Amino acid sequence: MKEFIEIKGAKTHNLKNISLKIPKNKFCVITGLSGSGKSSLAFDTIYAEGQRKYVESLSAYARQFLNLMDKPDVELIEGLSPAISIEQKSISHNPRSTVGTITEIYDYLRILYARLGNAQCPTHHTILKAQSTKEIIEEIFKLPEESKIQVLAPIVRNKKGEYKLLLENLARDGFTRIRIDGENYELSDPPELNKNQKHNIELTVDRLKLRHDDKTRIRLADAIEVSVKKSNGTVSIISMDNAFEPMIFSTQYSCPICGYSIKELEPRNFSFNNPNGACPTCSGLGVLEDFDPNLFINSEDLSLEDGAIIGWGPTSTFNYSLIESVCKHFNIPMNVPYKDLTDEQKIFCFMEMAK
Fold first, then answer.
1. Residue 102: which of 84, 124, 87, 119 has the closest Cα?
2. What is d(CA 254, CA 22) in angstroms, rounded to the nearest whole number?
3. How are beta strands 4-10 and 18-23 bridged, if at all?
């Protein structure tokens, strides 16, 4: 292992054929007058070459998430490991921003988690493994005989677009039915989709009555193979009469005990700025805002018309008229003590305050 990063013939921007050695495993600082080439050496030469080496170790899919720099104008750099850079930036006021997102370190961590992480079943904590077509069929055959099922290929998941060309191509391929946002349509007459809204599109590969015989098994195997091909490895089974909950299988990741399955891990699964990775409770913000109704009560012995709620009594003409309208609409008595109101009546009052 080399002890130095050796740079020869650096000519990027203000650098005039500079050659130098920088010790490794040391905290090094580059100083100089304004315009002397500090940034050209640190970012546009050393970091640019280190980033190029780093990106070469990634898959083509992962590379699309990184902004690549131009190849530096330098004769030779030896002893340089793959590198990342933390640039000086102004503070972001985005509530989802953290030190990791501002410095862009989190972009690399998401790729690291997606490529080296082991997906586990949340119930059995087993490493998720790929399911074969045979294993998927055996899981489906656990359903009651004569169950009416649809075999679906999830093609679009929670993405914006009109998808006119996609639907036309599917119809041209001989398919007749499609399921969009939970509704079934004929491909000969698909709905117009709002390009600014996110959609889920599932291709109906087959509809059949489940019989535990070889003929059904062969037909189901063919449908699963088509679904896997169209959806890059995912198969969805739903009941035509709502007899069971939808079943999702993957030829990539699945729990061998309970059949819990997910798609291949992607960087967006680890992003709190993306619906696929954000907490569904706080939407990725990390905090929940709420209020305590008890802090707004003068006295539970008072009635609404006597000013039980702070700021909503007769002395506040506008607010009082609002609470009066709400009580009239929902048939809430205003002349009884607040403590005698039902929980539902109290909720209606505070819903108006929340507006």
1. 87
2. 48
3. antiparallel
Q: Does 50 reside within a domain?
A: yes
Query: Could you tell me the CATH number of the domain that includes residue 318?
Result: 1.10.8.280
Total domains present in the chain:
3
CA angle, corner 137, sides to 230 and 167, nearest 5? 20
CA distance 274 to 87: 24
Q: Which residue type, as a one-letter code, is found at position 27?
A: F
Q: Are residues 243 and 344 in the same domain?
A: no
Measured distance CA(259)–CA(279) in Å, rounded: 23
Say if residue 139 is in the same domain as residue 59: no
Q: 173 or 100: which carries more pLDDT confidence?
A: 173
The residues near 135 (Cβ < 8 Å, ≥ 6 apart) are 254
* Per-residue tokens: 250: 């993957």
Q: Flag whether pLDDT at 92 surpasses 70.
A: no
| pLDDT over 60 at 180, yes or no | yes
pLDDT averaged over the chain?
A: 84
Would 93 be classed as within a structural domain? no
**Greater pLDDT, 201 or 124:** 201
* Residue partners of 331: CB distance under 8 A and separation at least 6: none
Residues 245 and 313 in one domain: no
* Domain coverage including residue 177: 133-264
